Amino acid sequence: MSSVDVVNVHKSFGDNDILKGIDMQVGQGEVVCLLGPSGSGKSTLLRCINGLVMPDKGHVAVGGSLIGRKVRDGKLHDLRGREASVQRERIGMVFQQFNLFPHLNVRDNLMLGPRAHRLAGKAELEEKAGLLLNKVGLGNRADAYPSQLSGGQQQRVAIARALMMEPELMLFDEPTSALDPELVGEVLDTMRSLAEEGMTMIVVTHEMTFARGVADRVVFMADGRIVEDARPGIFFDNPETERARSFLRLV
Ligand code: ADP
Ligand code: MG
Questions:
Q1: Whole-prediction pTM value?
Q2: Where is this chain primarily localised (predicted)?
């Protein structure tokens, strides 16, 4: 069974056709690296998958439920407000910018989302935050504020924060692009262990070593379309299209 189904997704902004009919399936526990030149529509596709952007045409389903829509009285309705945000929380998203709350310590950054939605009691959430901080190697930094952490540590906190909601899918949009080179490895290691635990992941990245070593599949986009969809060994060693070959020469 697919965990993510993207079916004929189109999206335009004004006169610009950004996604021109995207079809993509991701299986449970699969790790897909989404590669492609800047402007090819990768971030827009991730935003369609978690419901931040609604496609103009086509649809996305995660774990069998339509994103951003529900069926009522035999008709499709757009989800709004709280319903939409509750659905979005089933999907973790990590951005290039870590977006931690600067006035909250690490523990409270983790606890804010779930507490706001009254999913569990304070003690339970605190325990869960502690476990997740251990998992990302920051068990001893729960009382630190974001400004006291390196970029790599902040990004690992952002990953732990996303995991607090027990997402069925994690989306990463260039999670290491804002980091100093020496801090990239620790974030990729955290993502690699998440992948090894069986998390379903879609990762937009320019880290080709990560894509080759961790991804089950590489999906290569250019100009709003999927141009190649292959196992990493095949994509990197034997790309089918000139478009992919010229991309790979530049990275
Ligand atoms: P990528 O992540 O592959 O670099 P994006 O999905 O961010 O590509 O963007 C593709 C194009 O869509 C860019 O030219 C960008 O300017 C445009 N775009 C993205 N989001 C919006 C928006 N909300 N409004 C207008 N244009 C947008
Ligand atoms: Mg982008």
A1: 0.95
A2: membrane
Closest atom of ligand 1 to CA, residue 174? 2
Residue nearest to atom 5 of ligand 1 (CA): 41
SS3 state of residue 201: strand
Residues with CB under 5 A from ligand 2 (ion): 42-43
Own/partner contacts of 14-18, CB < 8 Å, gap of 24 or more, are: 17/224, 18/44, 18/224
Q: Which neighbouring-strand residues pair with 31?
A: 201
Domains annotated on the chain, with CATH: 4-250 (3.40.50.300)
Q: Hey, what's the torsion of the CAs at 17, 23, 24, 25, to 10 degrees?
A: 150
Cβ neighbours of residue 83 under 8 Å, at least 6 residues apart?
70
Smallest CA separation from ligand 1 atom 27, residue: 13
Pocket of ligand 1 (CB under 6 A): 13, 18, 36, 38-44
